[in-house]
Amino acid sequence: MYRICLGLLLIIAGFYVKATEPVHDGLVKLRISNFKDDKAGAVSYTFDDGLRNQYLIAAPIMEKLQIPGTFFIIPGQVSATLQEAEAKKPGAWGGVTWDEIRTLVAKGFEIGNHGYNHKNLVTQVKEPEELENEIENSADIIRRETGIFPVSFCYPYNSFNEQVGKIVERRHMVARIFQQGIGARDTTAKNINQWMDKLISRREWGVAMIHGLTDGFDPLRPDVFESHLTYAKKHEKDLWIDTFGNIGSYIKQRDATTIKEIEIGTNSVSFTLDCKLSKKQVKVPLTLVILTENKVTEAKATQGRESLPVTISNKQIMIDCVPDSGRVTVEWKFSDVYID
């Protein structure tokens, strides 16, 4: 695997979190938030290759701290039995069984597609049939074994081109095209924490790429990993921590969505969300932020006939709604204006 330097990560990630321009009439401003719940930054923890120490060490730490993660597995390398998994050398690909992968799913972790046999899809695969097998057959196996089709794809060796990208995009919502390698024995919790702090201050999404813990490629010390996650957990007010698939899907959908048919009243606003993605791809609620002229004391929101949860903070109203799912109406009151 190849690690991408932090500077490159921030340049690419910045492109993916470009803010949606607010729509306003002077009294009311309306915008789609960069991230869920209008968090300042976002981070995803991804694990490559299906290593045994990821299952035995990383997953329990994350479960204890209630932090989600994405495990990119290699279906053609998954161990058939527990005996086979335990017999593999430390850090070897596919050191987990399908039963163990299903356990990860049951605990809320995301399983992503890392190619059927981890071949470099640009230099090692030449025939279209083999390319489709490495990408699409691999995804079908994951669905068959876990019951869930993988939303996310991770390019083996982080290598891809236009042809490979088009095949991946046919059936996967998102693919990992930038990452921050976290590992090596000289990595400290302070280093990782500083990277995370920059994500918040620069309002960006960071994707951590992790391989081995204790042993294997670029091994990360478990105590360093747990110390960092404890630090990240304390910053959840400003940081959206979620799977690669969830954050990537939000961003892809956000960037394809436009606020349309806006009607602004004295104490109300209504609009529709038009998304350019196909109906099958539109699944993730987007956070909408409405800024009014005065402090709001009460508000209610609906999309179609469904009521939506509302969060109020001073002059700001925040709601989550799904594009192309009906007209959204938000009404509010100030201290002397009431909603029927």
From TrEMBL:
<dbReference type="GO" id="GO:0005576">
    <property type="term" value="C:extracellular region"/>
</dbReference>
<protein>
    <submittedName>
        <fullName>Polysaccharide deacetylase family protein</fullName>
    </submittedName>
</protein>
<dbReference type="GO" id="GO:0005975">
    <property type="term" value="P:carbohydrate metabolic process"/>
</dbReference>
<dbReference type="Pfam" id="PF01522">
    <property type="entry name" value="Polysacc_deac_1"/>
</dbReference>
<dbReference type="GO" id="GO:0016810">
    <property type="term" value="F:hydrolase activity, acting on carbon-nitrogen (but not peptide) bonds"/>
</dbReference>
<dbReference type="InterPro" id="IPR011330">
    <property type="entry name" value="Glyco_hydro/deAcase_b/a-brl"/>
</dbReference>
<dbReference type="InterPro" id="IPR051398">
    <property type="entry name" value="Polysacch_Deacetylase"/>
</dbReference>
<dbReference type="InterPro" id="IPR002509">
    <property type="entry name" value="NODB_dom"/>
</dbReference>
<feature type="domain" description="NodB homology">
    <location>
        <begin position="41"/>
        <end position="242"/>
    </location>
</feature>
<keyword id="KW-0732">Signal</keyword>
